[in-house]
Amino acid sequence: MKIAVLGGGQLGRMLALAAHPLGLGVRCLDPSSKAPAGAVAELVVGAFDDEVALGRLAEGCERATYELENLPIKAGEIMASRMPLHPSLQALTVGQERVAEKSFFRAHGIAVPDFVSVDAREELESGVAKLGCPAVLKTRRFGYDGKGQFVLHSPSDVDEAWVRLGGWPLILEKFVPFSRELSVLAVRSAEGEIRRWPLVENHHVGGILIASIAPAPKLDATLEAQAAVAVTRLMEALSYVGVLALETFQVGDTLVANEMAPRVHNSGHWTIEGAETSQFENHLRAVAGLPLGSTAAHGPVAMVNLIGTPPPTEAVLAIPGARLHLYGKEPRLGRKIGHVTVLAQSAAELGDRLERLARVVPVPDAAVASAHG
Amino acid sequence: MKIAVLGGGQLGRMLALAAHPLGLGVRCLDPSSKAPAGAVAELVVGAFDDEVALGRLAEGCERATYELENLPIKAGEIMASRMPLHPSLQALTVGQERVAEKSFFRAHGIAVPDFVSVDAREELESGVAKLGCPAVLKTRRFGYDGKGQFVLHSPSDVDEAWVRLGGWPLILEKFVPFSRELSVLAVRSAEGEIRRWPLVENHHVGGILIASIAPAPKLDATLEAQAAVAVTRLMEALSYVGVLALETFQVGDTLVANEMAPRVHNSGHWTIEGAETSQFENHLRAVAGLPLGSTAAHGPVAMVNLIGTPPPTEAVLAIPGARLHLYGKEPRLGRKIGHVTVLAQSAAELGDRLERLARVVPVPDAAVASAHG
Lengths: 373, 373
Fold this sequence. Notes:
The structure is a homodimer. By secondary structure, chain A is of the alpha+beta class.
């Protein structure tokens, strides 16, 4: 079976690497001829709204999926008219727009920060008055890695916020005093079976995910239960098939949903070596209608993104338990060009190994401290 | 760094799948345009003695290796004249010829079955008289998967043995009353560091490897120590860089060497999910001059070859801990077209899972029984 993938970035590349052993073919569509997936999968070069390119992507494929959510809905519709598209068009639509997304969460009993929709300066002013400060103003669409966001610390920040973001469809969210960011990673099969990996603790710097630790240290059953309920509700409401990532804030003992990604996710890269079945393999199994594999973790694992410049390969590989993943991308400021997974038998060992990694690759201190348990 | 690989079969394919995340390129040379590696690596189609094809293979590569040992030595020489070739030409030469191989083992204090070289019928007769029966007559070169072998149960079998194999350079080996077959899998870095995976128990049917269990059940320290000494001596004597597999017979508490493969090996496929670092990744790390990764096993693992016909994918993937590896080869009688790895937390669980696999894919009873521990 051949699977059509909208997008050919590192996620498409890792999907393709997982597809070959399963006997599944992958063909990706990407605007760039240098797309990372091209080295390991068929690549159609074209824009996502180019119907001829979409036709070439579809030819001979039996299932379609996507590895990025900032796609023209039309591209999803065209693929869905020719073959089953997973996750569903509804998941893609909801995941693209922050007001729709948070309204959807709320409608399904999932806690979200208070928010208001902002399309005019007056709405921003009334929103700030209503929600109080700090509050976060975000574009409703196309935000990623912290782009298109502005934090208002006081009502006097309205001027600057409006200068920066005014004119776009916006959302103003009450700032949540969270203790940490956790992501919920789950997969649902075509038959409705849901499996969930352990909760993942994420460390962002400047809005970009830098490190993940899995299973998230200091978990209690309450958090895992809330995660289970939230993804089950979302996946069932969306007739979801494939991997879903739900980014949340931990506030006290409560998970507050921030956003969802209807696709394999950076906070799930640790599953390649760190779980019995990776997010990439389980996404493909789900999309292809195959039984899901176990989502159990092998032990404590950390994942560190490589941003911008190539890592010192030898120094990284000399660290016990370290596994390197390069995406075949040209180095560029702020660009995710790879990641390192660090495996260990215990939290203490993971902490030590992550400390060693931190000497050769930037790792937030908080992530190292947290890995120590 | 790009690595040239002589051969583009499933071993080349799995090397390439391991190479991409490390940021290493792979280009394979294979006589077939349908070679399995072609889906995931650059493929040069040509004969191994075609100097133009070897030139195209070499272009832009910095290291060379091979994924099969039945190669013209000339091909190895041509590659070695242009870049470092790992494992060494000597390893390739020794591994190709059974008399040279067993003499080399013996010269380095590694136990082998008694043997004589046979080039004429009289030598076969005198050999049978000297070694006694049962004895195994084998071609000295190009044997694999039990091909080119004949067991003599009594001196009266000389006629049939000679009709079948006479005319080839042969070796007659005393039959060893072994309790099981174990393979030693190790890797040596360019700096001389040696790491060894746990011993693997192999189950052959008709000369073809069908199942491996790792770590081999019922191991004692004596066997592991003998394995360590044997590969250390071999690798050091051959200035070896890369993965080496040494197939042995367990006779009482002694390992008796049968043959070596100077390359990644079928009995090491379990390492992809079952060990901290796979044989493919560690071979590449060694060849590329990078530090080696840990060879520790995650737990009890079984590997079952898929021979001839495609497996029932859904039934295989429905087994907990089962991971499928298809090679993209056309089904054909007796052909290895893929393998299944089964992971478990305990021997009992591995046995149960292997039993379940045995209902949908042929697995020798002895392997299932042994997995139970």
